Amino acid sequence: MQTMDYFEFLDQERALIIKEPRCPQPWINYLSNGRMHAFVSQAGGGFAWWKSATVYRLTRYRQHLAPMDGPGFYIYLREEDGTVWSPSWRPAETELDKWKAIHRPGISSFEATYNGLHAQLDLWVAPDHDALLWELKLSNPSNRSRKLDAFAYVELSQMQWTDEFNWGYYIKYMLRTDYDEATRSVRYLFHHQSHPNISEVPLVYFAGSEVDTWCGSREDFLGSYGSESCPKAISKGNLNNRGISCGEPAAALHRQLCLETGQSHSLRFALGVEPGALLEPERCKQAIDGLLPTLLSKEGFDEQRERCEKWWTTHLEKLSCSLPEPELQRMIETWSPVNTVTTARFSRSVNATAPGIRGIGFRDTCQDMIAIAYRRPDWALDKLRSLLTEQHADGRANHTSYPIEKSPSNESLHSDNHLWLPMLAHAIAVETGDPGFLEETASFYTNKESATIWEHLMRALRFTESHLGSHNIPLTLRSDWNDIIGKFSKAGRGESLFASFQYVYVLRQMLALAQWSGRNDDADTIREWLHKQTTALDACAWDGGWWRRGFDDNGAPVGSRSSPFGKIFLNPQSWAVLARVGSREQQEAGMAAAAEHLLTDAGLKILSPGFKTWPEESNPFSGYGPGTGENGAIFCHANTWTIMAEALLGHADTAWEYFRRLVPENVIHRFGVNTYGADPHAWLSNIVGPENTRFGWGNVVHITGTAAWMDIVATQYLLGIRSELTGLRIDPQIPTHWTGFTVRRQVRGHWIHLKAKRSGHQRLQLNGHIMDPSQSIPWQRLAAENEIVAEM
Ligand code: NOJ
Q: Quick one: average pLDDT of 511-524?
């Protein structure tokens, strides 16, 4: 099957059309209002959760077990002759005459035609109510009337996901499903006393606009050894109107319909929650009873859909562009920022294979919020405030936290976590222009002490300053950004040059913030630390042809010509440029060495050559086989910084080429849908490298820092509109085979209309006035609407 037979993009509608349900992996879309969440695949598989997929998981999903990608949000249409089909193809799996799935930001649709009858199922989460809405539209353009039974079905979960695995065989006695006639809804109560937040445990409902029969039991619905594709209840044609007070919970609703020639009919369903089911059962029930009549009305659904679409339009319209290559444009305008919202909401925790148990990664969330900051600085600032409560008074930050699950934070000690905080603060400052937030007070992790945000940031620097090794380079500790680099510092003496480059980058940002906000004493201190660190780097970081990665416990260099494996790592080459360390020649040489040793058809490998692992090597770098994960995969997250570095060096062709190469659609065209496997509309963490037989296989989709940094890199370094503290930097990178491009961006309440042209001369004009292209445009020179022409 050809790639284009699988999918296409409709850019005007911001839509991905999937034309074949049997994708190699689930290609998913996230539906969410920030509290109620779900993801759904092209085949209707997926699950719903409220706030946390670990403690409020509402429906079940097989993340590792076969058959894959089920259950989900299922519709069965049973014809008079007993044939059963589903608009999302799954679960019935009947071959359909026409079929497509459409993922749009926040909304997924399935359109199918079978034997002359047309069905469309739309799913989205209501922005104002914690409910997943299902709208099923049926129409009969054929010349005969059609009788059919429509069923909607979800398999309910025991909410606490890991407990369900461990203790489900006892917990199944602690739940109940029943039916409320007045609101036509199955109600699900989970009453296990070990829930971390008893007062919030929700009452779950699955309600329909029209219902004839219902069922609250998976066993009754599927039947003994029944399958999702062919449940016993569907063969019978109606449901048994029975709930359970123990067992495997489910919610199914059924409606009998007759569609005359030319007639259409819609059924609406809502899967939602109301907290307080255990401690305030009456209030909880009344809230649902009061909500459902309005929510389930046509007007209620239309209003919630409009508000969902509006949220996304407002978010996405803040930046648009017109580029000669549509594959790049659609990623930058639509799917990258959509993906950034996903990571901002779910960090690294939930996708079709990730169950949601890993909490909020500190470094991860800081990076996600740096990307959110240019569209929603308010959201980024809120998150900064909560991240600060995970910072200790000595400046270090926890590695992960579980604000909803209420589990203890992971306090392991890393060289980088705290260093992302000043980067986030800087991103907020440049987008708002308001230093006021630095004065806000926030408590430290143990709650015994609080300090201003500025002091929190200074303590982050002090922590690194007081944890330097024998080369005056930051100790690696458990790791830097790279989770497994701590292998070289088991005895605690290893040093990380990546952390050092990041430290220098952060010191420069903090120096700018200190000067901008009038903190002269701190500026002097930071200047001293900056001098000390760049001097240390000058003395030990250069390996002759490229930048080293660090030093192991014995002081031996890592990422050096003298190393048998992992001779060269990607990150130090790019971060030396970002941190403005070394000479221009060294920076250029490092980037050239990266291209020479690490570049593949799918992007740059994180290191080369890959380390051997067990059993060939008894004390390996890690368990990752060569070419996989952090042992030599094409690590897309790390590629983002390479693109940024190439752009900063003014290498427009290379910067865009590295970006182009990783655009998922392009990788799919090069390697094929089945080799790559992953979604065409989302970034992923890494692609298996050439040292492995699965070269080209894409992994960890949607929930990756690649999303955040690709969004930043493309908009601020390739399109080149970048907020700085004192002005707006205009630095578009135009590849030699393009004549130019245009960008429209909102920043600090100004609209920027940029025309970037290739003319062979560096020139900059603002609203008809000649400006110095090497300087940023002072904020006060910007009007509400601005025409900017940048030539290069
Ligand atoms: C994924 C982790 O979530 C992230 O924190 C880390 O920086 C990267 N892997 C690289 O190791």
A: 98
Cα separation values, 92 from 133, 197, 542, Å: 21, 38, 61
**Backbone φ, ψ for residue 606 (5° rounding):** -75, -25
Copy the structure tokens of residue 282.
Answer: 């009456």
Q: Where are the alpha helices (DSSP H) in 111-217?
A: 161-171
**For ligand 1, is residue 480 a contact (CB within 6 Å)?**
no
Mean pLDDT of 327-333: 98
Q: Is the CB of 255 under 6 A from ligand 1?
A: no
pLDDT tens string 461-488 = 999 999 999 999 999 999 999 999 999 9
Task: Kindly list the distances between the CA atom of residue 782 and the CA atoms of 603, 701, 749, in Å, as whole numbers in the listed order.
Answer: 38, 39, 10
Burial (Cβ within 10 Å: 0-12, 13-18, ≥19) of residue 360: buried
The alpha carbon of 350 and the centre of ligand 1 are apart by a number of angstroms equal to 15
Amino acid sitting at position 751:
W
Count H helices, E strands: the chain?
21, 43
Are 596 and 567 contacting, i.e. CB atoms less than 8 angstroms apart? no
Q: Using CA atoms in the order 29, 688, 362, 495, what is the torsion angle rounded to 10 degrees?
A: -170
Task: Convert the pLDDT of each residue in 75-132 to its tens digit.
Answer: 999 999 999 999 999 999 999 999 999 999 999 999 999 999 999 999 999 999 999 9
HSE at residue 587, side-chain half, CA atoms within 13 A, is: 21
Mean pLDDT, the chain, integer: 97
CB 312 less than 6 A from any atom of ligand 1: no
Region 174-196: mean pLDDT is 96
- Rounded Cα gap, residues 183 and 208, in angstroms: 8
Cβ count near 556 (within 10 Å): 13
Report CA(359)–ligand 1 centroid distance (Å). 13
User: How far is 397 from 784, CA to CA, in rounded Å?
Assistant: 40
- C-alpha–C-alpha distance, residues 334 and 295, integer Å: 29
Q: What are the structure tokens assigned to 123, written together?
A: 């799913």
Whether 399 lines ligand 1, by a CB cut-off of 6 Å, is no
C-beta of 481 in contact with ligand 1 (< 6 A): yes
pLDDT at 1: 62
- For residue 630, which atom of ligand 1 is closest to its CA? 11
Q: Tell which atom from ligand 1 comes closest to the C-alpha of 348.
A: 3
Closest CA to 607 of 691, 526, 540: 691
Neighbouring-strand partners of residue 757: 740, 791
Q: Are 504 and 581 in contact (CB under 8 A)?
A: yes
Tell me if 4 sits within 8 A of 19, measured CB to CB: no
Q: Give the chain's length.
A: 792
Provide the angle, in degrees to the nearest 10, between the axes of the packed helices 298-316 and 281-295: 90
Ligand 1 centre to CA of 706 (Å) is 10
- Could you give the residue ranges of the DSSP H alpha helices within 579-635? 584-598
Ligand 1 atom with the smallest distance to the CA of 635 is 10
How many CA atoms does the CB half-sphere of 781 hold within 13 Å? 18
Q: Which amino acid is at 246?
A: C
Q: Is 498 in the pocket of ligand 1 (CB under 6 A)?
A: no
Q: With beta carbons less than 8 A apart as the criterion, state whether 709 and 640 touch.
A: yes
Atom of ligand 1 nearest to the CA of 479: 11
Name the residue among 720, 737, 738 with its Cα closest to residue 729. Answer: 720
- pLDDT above 70 coverage of the chain, percent: 99
Question: Cα separations (Å) of 302 from 129, 208, 309?
Answer: 14, 16, 11
Backbone angles phi, psi at 733, to 5 degrees: -100, 115
How far lies 408's CA from each of 398, 446, 587, in Å?
10, 12, 42
For the CA of 363, the nearest atom of ligand 1 = 5
Residue with CA at minimum distance from ligand 1 atom 1: 483
> Taking a C-beta distance cutoff of 8 angstroms, is the pair 153, 250 a contact?
yes
% of the chain with per-residue pLDDT over 90:
98
pLDDT for residue 220 is more than 90: yes
